[in-house]
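Module 6 notes. Inverse folding takes a fixed backbone as the condition and produces residue identities as the prediction. Think of it as a translation problem where the source language is geometry and the target language is the twenty amino acids. Below is one complete input and output pair. Work through it position by position during the lab.
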């Protein structure tokens, strides 16, 4: 059974609110890098960048990149960035995913980013499950929802946008 937790309008509103929060906390930074986890995390990161470019007075300072990793077994393959990692040195990075499930994906992506000697890392998440296995905190959150380990959150972007609990 699926229970809708966000519809298209709510996803758009939460995306805009998170973009404003990011802007409020990074407007003095010369550059901000938004790294989206491959798949829905990257789609959400693209939307955040679009909104940031709409509200920012300097649109050239927001850079988007994709983070690829094996979500099922992140230790089996490398974490890859679609950007030259030298650009991230001393940079502010916003790590983006659609949902925090266990927290493992964000931990492995964070480890890769820390190896680049970034200035700071913040996380932006559309749906934050408050029941997870690893201690990952979301800095910018669209929706906090309490779940059990058996519950799953699915986000669909595109033609029929929604987030639901399974």
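Target side of the pair, the amino acids:
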């Amino acid at each position: 059974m699926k229970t809708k937790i966000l519809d298209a309008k709510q996803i758009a509103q939460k995306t805009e609110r998170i973009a404003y929060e990011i802007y409020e906390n990074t407007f003095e930074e010369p550059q901000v890098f938004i790294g989206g986890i491959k798949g829905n995390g990257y789609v959400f990161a693209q939307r955040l960048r679009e909104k940031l470019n709409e509200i920012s007075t300097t649109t050239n300072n927001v850079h988007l990149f994709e983070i690829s990793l094996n979500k099922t077994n992140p230790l089996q393959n490398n974490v890859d960035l679609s950007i030259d990692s030298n650009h991230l040195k001393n940079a502010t990075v916003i790590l983006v995913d659609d949902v925090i499930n266990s927290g493992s994906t964000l931990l492995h992506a964070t480890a890769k980013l820390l190896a680049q000697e970034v200035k700071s890392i913040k996380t932006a998440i559309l749906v934050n499950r408050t029941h997870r296995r690893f201690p990952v905190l979301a800095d910018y959150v669209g929706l906090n929802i309490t779940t059990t380990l058996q519950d799953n959150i699915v986000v669909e972007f595109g033609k029929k946008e929604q987030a639901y609990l399974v």
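Reference fact for the lab report: The chain has a mean pLDDT of 91.
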